[in-house]
Structure prediction request, 584 residues.
Amino acid sequence: MSRPSRARSRYPLWLFAPLISLWPSAAMESPTSLRFSEIYKNESLTGLTLGINSRTEIEQQYQYWSEFRNNEMPQERQKIWMDRCRAIPIHNSSPFCPFFIKEGKTKAKELGLTSLPTSFGVASHLTSAEALTAWKSQHWAVLAGRTKQEVQPILNTIRSPQSALNTADLILKRSQCISSSLLFGVGFKLESAFPNVAYRTKAEALYQMALSCGNDEGAEAAGYRLGLFKIWQGRYDEAETILSKIPDLARASDYRMRIGYWRYYCATQNKNEVLKAQLRAWVTHEYPLSFHSLLMHPSKFGSDLQWKQAQDPEVFFRPVSNADLGASTAAIEYLLGRGDQRSARSLLFTYQQEAIKEAPQFRLYWAILLKRAGVYSENFRFMASAFRENPSLISRPTLEILYPTQFLEYVPAVQSHLDRFFTLSIIRQESAFDPNAASPARAMGLMQLQLPTARNYDKRVSIQQLWEPETNIRIGSKYINRLVESERGSIELALAAYNAGPGRIRQWKARYPITNRLLFIDLLPARETREYVSSILRNYFWYIKLYSPNEPIRTIANDGKNSASAGLLKEGLEPYLRSMTSDP
Prediction:
């Protein structure tokens, strides 16, 4: 039998050899850079247009993936691609390997491929039945160190405040260390009966026990709330002792920045100037743009960052040493150039955990790519992470991108209580300026409105109209202004009601009768609402600083005769911010 001719194959043999020449590691040593604003404003500027990678080779790799995806590639070569992508580094095979692997899963059986090995750790995980059995039989040693997920079946059996109180009595009587997440969960259920002193006392005892028994997220959450309870009671020495013992679990923790701020607050009350200065420096460095950081500088409000004098920073088009990430970045650029945002987003999400570990200058470029792909919220997150690691990158050009004025023309110029930049601050948090944003709760558009809510302000509005920026902003502005009026001029409560609903705010106000407004916000049971309120106040501060620095009067509140909040904020934004942590 004669050997088949090579000419019959549509694929050259070198396709199946390591393509070392495509993305050499040496190219990563000196990443090309340009100024941030230049790249952000000119979408044609990419690493490919600057010649960092070969467009022809990228196009060829894209063609192979397209043939694979459309079943135009012979099965034997499909199998080779999938095996190579699993075994060989991306920069030596193809930047589209994540797609070969993902799409190849549906073809694995057909091609006779075995699945990648998976380990589940079943033996060490406590099942729902095992957790309930251990709890009911009081074999509590099994529950020590268990995660929130493992003990949730136990917490689900506690359906009333009285049941939580009985459970707390049982736990405290035994005085045995069990899961910190379980201790926190029972204490948290007791809070639904606050401000009843008996329930608060038991909750505090459980939180103290959780902090002593664990070093996990349950201990962190328990210590945070216990510390804030002590501040509520004016016991600042005790609060500092508790807050200083909370485990520092992760940079992204909801509590980490707030713990730093409230320790600073206690140091201020205790007149401990050394600790106060240390904590202010730490929070300002770690969270430079945050609302809590701004409150630590009441006389300067952000001026320590020197952002007005900072230069437009340089941006790296490629990571310094991660050749695989560099190859994938080139593929993302190519996909965006083709208008294939969906595939670009897929690669961006696949590699975002690697990208966020790279140099801040490269993270700024990744943020630009996210914005070009329409992933606005992640765009903001990457920029914030770059600023946190390198505050010198904070400049007017980067801040203007972080706080854009898109859709400002649709914001009503005359409103009852709020100005136009405050509405932008809400839009930034609700949808990150994505007019197509939708939530699982069927909230839609820029200001994330549900149809029943919207029809309270426009009876004839349709779902289709709510997707229109102008209509969405018009109705959303009416809604937030009405909430400010309902909450008697309290901006914080109006924002919390916008996020969580007016009914829940009434419950929380009864549960936590706290005069310190920031303390009330930071004690809210819903993490999302805590973040929401402080983030919008932060947004508004930076919008005013960037676009309306010479108008301290008439910031949030209007001076109209019918404005419920006119008297509260008539002196401007900064006095209002200073009043956040003061008792009336």
